[in-house]
Specification:
Elements: H1 2-13, H2 20-32, H3 38-43, H4 48-56, H5 66-78, H6 83-87, H7 91-101, H8 107-112
Length: 117
């Protein structure tokens, strides 16, 4: 995940299209859904949540692709992570809260990342 995010960041800095996250998203999330990750992610210093934050964090060119954001929000929802309890003190929680307030984010996605939503 970090490699795709870095490749997209480099492409954007060179005024080129950034497609690595878009290419990697579906196959990556398909593999991750095969594991029961919730407790492991929350109890250990795991970099997956940081990588999700890196993918979702808006860059100089704006938000990442809508399909990537929507897929990651669905994946996070599938993990049954609670925003207030589990994400309130880490980077992914901060990024999701900022995206919820971002005027470029869709209303449907804002509902997905709203506490109790």
């Amino acid at each position: 995940m970090h490699d795709a995010a870095e490749a997209d960041h480099a492409a954007i800095n060179q005024n080129e299209p950034a497609f690595e996250k878009l290419r990697a998203c579906a196959p990556l999330l398909e593999r991750l859904r095969n594991f029961d990750l919730r407790d492991f992610l929350l109890e250990h210093d795991v970099k997956l949540l940081e990588a999700c934050a890196q993918w979702l964090r808006p860059g100089a060119s704006g938000l990442c692709a809508l399909s990537v954001r929507s897929a990651l929000y669905d994946f996070i929802d599938d993990l049954d992570i609670e925003m207030e309890r589990d994400l309130s003190h880490n980077e992914l929680g901060r990024v999701l809260m900022a995206l919820r307030k971002n005027p470029q984010e869709t209303d449907g996605n804002k509902r997905k990342i709203t506490v109790g939503g």
